[in-house]
Specification:
The chain is α+β, with helices and mostly antiparallel strands and about 210 residues long. The protein has 2 domains: about 100 residues, no CATH class; about 80 residues, no CATH class. Helices cover about 35% and strands about 20% of the residues. It contains 8 helices and 9 strands. The strands form 2 sheets. Strands 1, 3, 4, 8 and 9 form a 5-stranded antiparallel beta sheet that branches. It has a 4-stranded mixed beta sheet with strand order 2-7-6-5, with no helix packed on it. A hairpin with a 5-residue loop joins β3 and β4. α1 packs across α5, α2 packs across α5 and α5 runs antiparallel to α7.
């Protein structure tokens, strides 16, 4: 059973459910499974890590639309400065909108990243962050979860159908297969980090 794109995934779910009356719901169950992966921190791994350069003209900038949580924030000065994270409350206690100087700290509030102090001129900051799993659509027919762990999406969608399946004896099988696939996905990052590599502390800062 090939699962190399969105269309094949939907067909595979339909074949497992064998319920023509539920076919129209399959995209919703795939989307719900993807949203669950994005919400649950145990699934976050190296394939979700990205970086981008942010240009500031004031003390705040809008975060990337696929942002989930920050890893590091570095002021691209010479020498470069790795910024310390503060909670929004801590940040507001220290900085005002007219605080001036070399950026030392940052916070995240809603969809904004704020730095403090702000030097009063345009600056660039490199943000390493965890990005959302891209949604599957007809135009974007694959993502890293489908490439690496298609069974998570396959059985997650089948589990999503559970309210419509009543006492279907297959439900226990679907839940068991999903739990196993999800556990393998959750262990993916720890295997990569502990496979002989030095341990480095990371910062995890989610949207508040």
């Amino acid at each position: 059973m090939a699962l190399s794109n969105y269309g094949e995934l939907k067909s595979a779910v339909a074949n497992l459910l064998n319920r023509e009356d539920l076919t129209a719901n399959i995209p919703d169950w795939i989307s719900i499974t993807t949203a669950m992966i994005n919400r649950d921190t145990k699934f976050r791994n190296r394939l979700m890590e990205a970086s981008t350069d942010l240009a500031f003209t004031s003390n705040e900038v809008t975060l990337p639309t696929d942002f989930l949580e920050a890893r590091t924030a570095v002021y691209l000065s010479s020498p470069r400065v790795r910024l310390e994270y503060l909670t929004p409350a801590q940040f507001e206690d220290i900085y005002t909108s007219d605080s001036s100087g070399t950026p030392q700290q940052f916070t995240i509030l809603g969809n904004k990243l704020k730095v403090g102090p702000f030097p009063g001129v345009g600056i660039n900051l490199r943000l390493a962050y965890v990005q959302k799993v891209p949604a599957l659509t007809t135009d974007a027919s694959t993502n890293w979860v489908l490439d690496e762990h298609p069974d998570v999406l396959l059985y997650g969608a089948c589990v999503g159908a559970s309210p419509f399946l009543g006492d279907d004896q297959r439900l226990q099988t679907f839940f068991g297969l999903y739990d196993r696939a999800a556990a393998e996905l959750a262990g993916m990052d720890s295997r990569a980090r502990w496979n002989g590599a030095p341990v480095r502390p990371t910062l995890s800062v989610a949207i508040v």
